[in-house]
Amino acid sequence: MIMNKLLKDVKIKKIYFKNKPEIKGLSLNSKSVKPGDLFTAIIGFNKDGHDFAVEAVKNGAVAVMSQRKLDLPADTAQIIVSNSREELPVICRNFFGNPTKDILLTGVTGTNGKTTSVFLINSILRTAGFKTSFITTVSSQIEDKKLSFDRTTPESIDLNKFFYMDRLDGVNAACIEVSSHS
To answer: Which of the listed CATH numbers 3.40.800.20, 3.40.1390.10, 3.40.190.10, 3.20.20.80 matches domain 3-95?
Structure first.
């Protein structure tokens, strides 16, 4: 995807690039970066993604979104934003083509009964004729295909990829168990 489309609606403080690279994928993990990826550096509770940007570039990242200018090779595009975590969903929406645009979304949060509620809502929607998908802490499915996530509450990249796959499979309703802490 070309940078102009990817960065639509992103609140950019500053951008540095020699050439506008084509972005082929998105990553938060420097170890799983593939050639052509945009790596997003996020400040976490225990680790700071900015510390892994050089490794991400060595692994093939052609662009980095971060909260400060980093010492990276000159041919690496750098997108500086105030808050990487807040801008990542915008990047994901653009990259995956706004995959939830035509999907009825239901989020379930609370102390107890979230997984059961998602299963019940999914069953009701299927009975009503919807093609469905769901994400819970126990399992995730697109129609009858089981999937898994690394985290209880998937990151923006994983969620948008999931909804993109939904759209490709003709899903028109999705239900998600949502952590109140995400």
So the answer is: 3.40.1390.10
